[in-house]
Amino acid sequence: MSDDGEIVPGVPIGEMPVAWTLLVVGCAAGALATGEFSRVTLRAAAPLLLAGGLLALAAVRAIGRGTRPATRGPYRFVRHPYLAGVLLMLVGAIVAMRSLPALVLFIPTVRVTLMRARREEHNLALRFGDAYEAYWRRVPFMLPLRPPLRADEIAAIEALSRPRPDEPQPTGPVAGPPAGEM
To answer: Is residue 140 part of a domain?
Structure first.
């Protein structure tokens, strides 16, 4: 994680969701407009579409109210399950429709998705401090390459996110990522 809490090079935070959404929609629309499917490609793509959709849905359900880092559900396995689920669905759409233009558009979509994920990590590190740092060190980025968080690890991370009695409590709204960045 970066030590500098304020400087992040690249696209301004507010523009990231718009660019990402346009690329995702363009990639999916490109697959539908330029591709053609067969029973074989639909059968090959169905598990990708289903798994990606379920992963994205589970991530949305597990995120909670944003008062502490999400550590349950798919967040036990990877730090960005929603984004991974969307990318998995796009791969499924490309496979189903056998679309070369959508495949070409998928490359910048992945790049912007990775940029968005890094920006979200920056925002979460600013918002949750040591709790997110502990989570970040233990849970893989988008591919579940380690065992999931155990209950004791979840409890330790959640304990870090609770305010200590000796710390002054903020009186105004909690600063966090802009709307649409979570």
So the answer is: yes
Structural domain includes residue 142: yes
Residues 6+ apart with CB under 8 A from 39: none
Q: What is the spatial distance between Cα 68 and Cα 55, in angstroms, rounded to a whole number?
A: 21
At 55-98, the pLDDT tens digits run 999 998 998 777 788 999 999 999 999 999 999 999 998 998 88
Is residue 4 included in any domain, yes or no?
A: no
Helices (H) then strands (E): counts for the chain: 6, 0
3-state secondary structure of 104: helix
Radius of gyration of the chain (CA): 18
The structural domain count of the chain equals 1
Residue tagged 């979509």 (tokens) = 109
pLDDT of 15: 56
Go through the chain and tell me how many residues it has. Answer: 182
| Phi, psi at 174, each rounded to 5° | -75, 130
- 43 CB-near residues (< 8 Å, 6+ apart): none
d(CA 148, CA 12) in angstroms, rounded, equals 33
User: Over the stretch 115-153, which tens digit does the pLDDT of each residue have?
Assistant: 889 988 998 898 889 999 999 999 999 999 999 999 999
CA–CA gap between residue 75 and residue 83 (Å, rounded): 12
C-alpha 76: how far from chain center: 13
